[in-house]
Design goal:
Mean pLDDT: 93
Largest sheet: 7 strands, parallel
Structural class: alpha/beta
Order of helices and strands: EHEEHEHHEHEEHEEEHEEHEHHH
Strand content: 15-25%
Strand order of the largest sheet: 3-2-1-4-5-6-11
Number of helices: 11
Shape: globular
Bound molecules: nicotinamide-adenine-dinucleotide
Radius of gyration: 20 Å
Low-confidence stretches: 355-363
Helix content: 25-40%
Number of strands: 13
Length: 366
């Protein structure tokens, strides 16, 4: 697979390219490769055209509305675009939603992945085997279950133990992806990453929820006692890792991608409050002097996994990738982005963006 300096007539399909990670990945692939980038997205509530306005007229970018649960459309699309790589990110991704309605998670995450694998297999079988083709299946650390404080972080051989309908559906899709390599030889790679944060994250996830509650002066809801631990990965670091896997990863391998950045939720929330106290201080005479005064503990999510942590040594030693951002640098960039891009999140929070129409409350997820 060519590096950024090589000219190429490559075509990369990114599924779910209008979502949080997908839109960041599309932008990074346009910047760091010469490939044509085709975004397949069907615009669920999480897909957002506004996240890609800056590239929508780019000469190497194309958007196609495809629902990956539509097997025929996926099969035809694969034959039409003849990709050299597929980055598969399209998914239902919110744990709380999976608790309320698991069916859509099975349709998109399991059946949709099956449709893509079948279409990719058919395309891959038709090409000369000296031609490059890669299928990068993007998954989550949640498939590994939950850790206690002293436990070793998840590595690529950790036994699967998913607890929510979301993580169970992702686990099923990971098994399918690996089976297409071991049964048919198709060059599939699986990545399992920790919690992402950064620009363009839909405001139902913990970090944007906290920032926006602060800006609106609303109580900041924190599940349980706030002691749950997550390993936070800056989204651009994740996207660099995905490109690295596509360029240099070995077919059939799994790569865990993490931020080396474990934080308890409550500490993370306090960090965000402190950054905002500095960047958007309260005027003298305000009812509160620090955003941290808005923190409110709310009833915990059922089956809330206690701790996720990624051991990312394999991708560092084999592919020379490690995160560039730490918690402070990445969080500061993220908070600043939400301050600078009010129009983007306002359009989501106002009923314009399908949210209120579907009766969806803005609750934190991590
Ligand atoms: P997201 O919910 O922000 O975006 C998902 C995108 O997929 C949306 O644009 C949506 O419109 C699209 N989509 C959903 N169903 C579709 C369908 N049937 N056909 C076509 N498009 C469809 O998700 P995200 O946070 O960007 O996550 C991307 C991937 O990374 C997912 O596979 C997720 O499981 C994985 N992941 C995310 C995180 C995280 O912290 N966000 C962590 C680990 C793994």
């Amino acid at each position: 697979m060519p590096t950024s300096t090589q000219l190429s007539d490559e075509v990369f399909i990114v599924t779910g390219g209008a979502g949080f990670i997908g839109s960041n990945l599309v932008r990074l692939l346009l910047r760091d490769t010469n490939a044509k980038i085709v975004n397949w997205d069907c615009f669920t509530y999480a897909g957002n055209r506004h996240s890609l306005v800056d590239v929508e007229n780019h000469g190497r970018y194309q958007l196609e509305e495809i629902d990956i649960t539509d097997a025929e459309a996926v099969m035809q699309g694969m034959a039409r675009y003849q990709p050299t790589a597929v980055f598969h990110l399209a998914a239902e991704s919110h744990v709380d939603r999976s608790i309320d309605g698991a069916g859509q998670f099975i349709d998109t995450n399991v059946v949709g992945t099956f449709n893509l694998l079948q279409a990719a297999l058919s395309w891959w079988r038709s090409i000369d085997k000296s031609q490059d083709f890669r299928f990068i299946h993007v998954s989550t650390d949640e498939v590994y279950g939950s850790l206690d404080l002293g436990d070793d972080a998840f590595c690529e051989t950790t036994r699967y133990d998913p607890h929510s309908p979301y993580s169970a559906s992702k686990a099923a899709s990971d098994h399918l992806a690996r089976a297409w390599k071991s049964t048919y030889g198709m060059p599939v790679m699986v990545t399992n990453c920790s919690n992402n944060y950064g620009p363009f994250q839909f405001p139902e996830k913990l970090i944007p929820v906290v920032i926006l509650k602060c800006l609106r002066g609303d109580p900041i809801p924190v599940y349980g006692t706030g002691e749950n631990v997550r390993d936070w990965l800056y989204v651009e670091d994740h996207c660099r890792a995905l490109l690295r896997v596509a360029q240099a990863g070995q077919a059939g391998e799994t790569y865990n991608i993490g931020g080396n950045n474990e934080r308890q939720n409550i500490d993370l929330v306090r960090d965000i409050c402190a950054i905002l106290d500095e960047l958007r201080p309260h005027p003298p005479g305000s009812k509160i002097s620090s955003y941290a005064e808005l923190i409110t503990f709310v009833q915990d999510r059922p089956g809330h996994d206690f701790r996720y942590a990624i051991d990312a040594r394999k991708i560092k030693s084999e592919l020379d990738w490690e995160p560039a951002e730490n918690n402070q640098s990445g969080m500061r960039k993220t908070v600043q982005w939400y301050l600078d891009n009010q129009e983007w999140w306002e359009s989501i929070l106002s009923g314009n963006y399908k949210l209120e129409r579907q009766g969806i409350a803005v609750t934190p997820s991590a």
